[in-house]
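Intended use. Records like the one below are meant for learning the mapping from a protein sequence to its folded structure. Do not use them to infer anything beyond what is encoded.
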Amino acid sequence: MKRRAGAREGKEAKKQKLLEELGENWLPYLTPRDAEFHQLWKTAYSKLLLRKADKIPQELHHIVQEAFLTLQKHDCFFQDLVRIKGKDFLTPVSRILIGNPGCTYKYLNTRLFTVPWPMEDYEIKYCHPELFTACKALIKLNDYLNIEAVQALQEQNLSGTKETEDTAVTDREQDFSNFIKGSLLEDQSSLYTPRNDCTSLKYKTSYNLTLLNYMDPLQMPYLKQEPYFGMGNMAVSWHHDENLVERSTVAVYSYSCEGSESDKVNEQDVEGRDPADWHIGLKVAWDIKTPGLAIPLHPGDCYFMLDDLNMTHQHCVLAGFQPRFSSTHRMAECSTGTVEYIFGQCEVALHNLQVDSDSAALSLKSLEVQVVKEVEEIHNKVEFEWLRQFWFQGKRYRKCTDWWFEPMAKLEEFWKKMEFMTSLVLGEVGKGERTIEQRNKIISCLLPLLTERQELRKEWTARCQCQLAMSLPEEQKPKCHPFWKDDDPSMPLPYDLEEVIANLQTLLE
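Structure written out for the chain above:
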């Protein structure tokens, strides 16, 4: 947590320094109307590939755009209540995460849980047959973008310094009729490829989830202005995408609803980008020498951020006038973000708990400091990285599927056993059967973890009761869970740990 906070502070310092250097001036940026646009794209932004809508199979456009509208009809897009610099904000963009069953994706201190797309060997019940069709369309888009990304990387490797009029835009067509029938549904196990295979194309492009976005700019009371170039209204501020497999490709399908002729802006009357059109903005990270790019996105266009572009550059999404959907396909770094991982962690923790076969009494196998520390760290992880994250998002997942409720119930059972394990450690510390040195070592290990637990419970409780949280629709309002009163006979310890912590501090004195 401290490392993340330090990284955020470093980014803020860089941003302030850049703004100070600019003063009242704007940095230059280019659009397709500028003569140097394609040359700049080729030299400074060559790892951004645009696939225009007319080069993408029409059948794919149809099923994907239908999927967007279906998810919107069933109210499956949600604004996220995120945490930035200790404050809560509602995202201007509404989102839903769809992907491999049991995967999660974390951004801005918020863990999103995938609505699973159809995969072999998984039984997934959707709340409506139309949602199954929508998710099936998105995994077909995922497979298509995977193939396109692999070929794009191969083309970049083969082309080298070969001169072309515009290397960023390619004109390759795909035989989609065969592809659509054979859409792959296998488990994308390449995520766990050993490090010596990390450079493989499959490792960089086997997307395990997509983050879908929706925004209607005309319904927004306020949109932030782009601060460096004067590019206008931003739907998404400058950023690097978080928590991705290193050097993996991000693929984005963009669909802005068609506008009327009255929405068109006379290009001769506009300096810079056309504000009626959606654009992706690109800049070299923390660089004031290289001009930025504003690339128009027309309905059905796709773009790919290849290789290390997401690390060396930043991007933003510049709003147009019309509502827009996008599907952003990613190789999320899920080594610590899957149900299988957290269940494995619970198994490690609960290995230290034993149950008497006759009396069913609970006891701990070991009170070694390292064992106690590991168990309590897992305890905190389960509570604050999983249970509270899930319930903070209210009942939103019930709109699509009930898939997550069984593993979350199981996870809560494991967490409750860990509450008993903490209680057993406290009981052993209070018995006086150990030397003062042994006791103090256990307390010194336990105290910071319980203090962190207490502080985080206070923070999450306050977040659930904040004004923004209370303003959300009923099914989206955060739920402070787990929560219990001190007289709850099923719980071995109080929710408020202040007295427990004070008693431990007294024993140390």
